[in-house]
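Rotation project, supervised by the postdoc (A.L.). Task for the rotation student: set up a whole-complex structure prediction and record inputs and outputs verbatim in this book. Inputs entered:
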Amino acid sequence: MSDVRVAARAAREASFALAASPSETRSAALLAIAGALEAGKETIFAANRLDLQAADDLSAPVKKRLRFDEAKLADVLAGLRALAAMEDPIGREQMRTELADGLVLSRVSCPIGVIGVIFESRPDALVQIASLCLKSGNAVLLKGGREAMHTNEALFAVMEKASLEAGLPAGWAGLLTTREDVRGMLELDEDIDLIIPRGSNAFVRMIMDNTRIPVLGHSDGVCHIYLHEDCDPEMAARVVLDGKTQYPAACNAVETLLVHAHATQALVAAGRALADAGVRIRADARAQAVLAAAAVPCEPADASDWRAEYLDLTISVRVVDSLDEAIAHINRYGSHHTDCILTGEEDAARRFFARVDSAGVYQNCSTRFADGYRYGFGAEVGIATGKLHARGPMGVEGPCSYKYILRGHGDTVAQLADGRRTFTHQKLL
Amino acid sequence: MSDVRVAARAAREASFALAASPSETRSAALLAIAGALEAGKETIFAANRLDLQAADDLSAPVKKRLRFDEAKLADVLAGLRALAAMEDPIGREQMRTELADGLVLSRVSCPIGVIGVIFESRPDALVQIASLCLKSGNAVLLKGGREAMHTNEALFAVMEKASLEAGLPAGWAGLLTTREDVRGMLELDEDIDLIIPRGSNAFVRMIMDNTRIPVLGHSDGVCHIYLHEDCDPEMAARVVLDGKTQYPAACNAVETLLVHAHATQALVAAGRALADAGVRIRADARAQAVLAAAAVPCEPADASDWRAEYLDLTISVRVVDSLDEAIAHINRYGSHHTDCILTGEEDAARRFFARVDSAGVYQNCSTRFADGYRYGFGAEVGIATGKLHARGPMGVEGPCSYKYILRGHGDTVAQLADGRRTFTHQKLL
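Outputs recorded:
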């Protein structure tokens, strides 16, 4: 058997024990991992230096993500301790119904089982993802970016040792290291319940097209801000600037600005703020006319701009004649990630919330808020842009499912089918 | 454009209006459909006679499912009226958190969008599925079995006319009629959010392997009953008989009986009840020895029996030495559908509930209870054996997703990143 097959089988076996483990065991393991990472930090930092040396010719942002230092460690430890203190997401009774006298149905949250996560070269992500899976009682197979290989191996070794000593079942977490491991994982639909790929759009699609295992991930992040006719110019400038420039490479950065034909002042204010920040503006003819009249530099947009995920200091701008035209544009060209309306009109906001088919629908704030930490989930295993299972940033509830528990006293369906007994269907919870 | 492409596009357009429709409109449409079906019943019965005539050489159970008469109509009307009275599953606020002063995040349930359902030759299923989708604000594409073609067309025509007159958006429901339509549907991942195939295992797998659209369905129904060492023989006989014979062709019928080595009396009682009902028993060597000593007829099982979904009057029997061996057998050979333990020991039941990885885990009752109607959901759009999104019978919550709504006053991430403001993450709901 290949390594990945062995790891997946071990994870499956461990998943049954983990699903039945008390909350205290999982919380104690999280605290033990925190303690061990703190005690073993010099080994981890040394491993990280190896990765950083090898990454010398990579870009500054990549190196920043790759770095694992005291500051990153402090964040990781805070995250582990916060997670340990959180309420247990599994074993929660979500509903209870008496089906017939003495026959009671409950729905109870439970782990999904075995989750495979493929993530970028950010070593802190390894601990975050593993700890969210552990808290929710899931076994996990981890494959990080190869640039972080030494750091990941050091972190994994510390985490594994501490968690097994704290009583977790052997094999609950597995570290995969090669591309062949990823390919192998895609075939193991018997032993892996879910794959969460984090990375480029093309990569996520490649995974989806090559496995029978359910995949939760996001495709593009083509996010919109729409300036409604009453939009305040100062707010437009501030929020659009933040959405575009606070971190342009993120999937929740804004890519297209839609502007009501009457909101010309807001368009000029936002355009000027963007241009001053060095943002390239690609505008349709009507927006160009407004911006040119105010001496804001811009260039003509073409049809391909409406679907573009720039991920840099570029934005497209289009003028629309109504709220409904803005909504139709977003549903047609967007990626169902996060879209925002700037307005003081509550009716317009409500219509926008109800009709825009996206994981996040915002009013008067930056699209950059779409993130597990900012949502108060502690961290995220990923962001889902699909509508099945989970949507948006996935915290500790993302890796949870539920099961139905039915308890009787020898009850048969025949008794109820032939009328000797009747269904009561009384809601108890 | 092909018919199915036109129907899917229309459904997508309608889905936005439907998602924003008030609960009253959807409830009124359900009542209008009920009234129109009652008023138009003679046309529908006439269409059904055509289908029944053409089905003359089919089996009695198939003809029974195909028949649409006063009794089936009464059930359908009762279902529609019950659904109209139910609380709205969409627009429910599931959580609310203040992220920072004045910036409030809500999670609100919403429809999935457009759902394609492929179902068996049972005309009442058409109305049940369409009405569950309508109640939950989803547009639906319906493809029923061709044996029910005339009845489906008559039902659909009445339903469509009544619902449009009640104010639903044109195109919210579409009727597909050919196999080419099903193939066409599988390619429309832009306009269809979810496919629910009901039918044989091979058919469901074929759908899963040929589309990028998420599929919710069930694979096999290999359900188990485990007789624990303290199991009462009378209860064993009663519950096992019901699980196997009350309707053997259903996916929730029991296929394998696991028996603790000390529960020989229960094994004999269950075996005798099964044999008396004409059930063929395929037993492992230890079970054979017990049954033969009690003069209960049986034949030797082989390894293939543990994965068999007989769907007829056949059952496999295996003796195990412990609860954990039974659990391991179920997790290894079962299909994660519904599994039951017969015991009075609460600790054993709890261990079984926690460790058996199935949608339904039962104590002291028949596996045949796994069904949307019996669970009190009114009806079901399908049963899911996967662990993502929905699990078990899916009622009106099956076709629901959620979205995050964030409302602010010009809030930027930059203010929070640079420390001018701080996250509060105060749970409000």
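Student's summary: The CA atoms of residues 283 and 300 of chain A lie 5 Å apart.
Supervisor addendum: Chain A touches chain B through 77 residues (CB under 8 Å).
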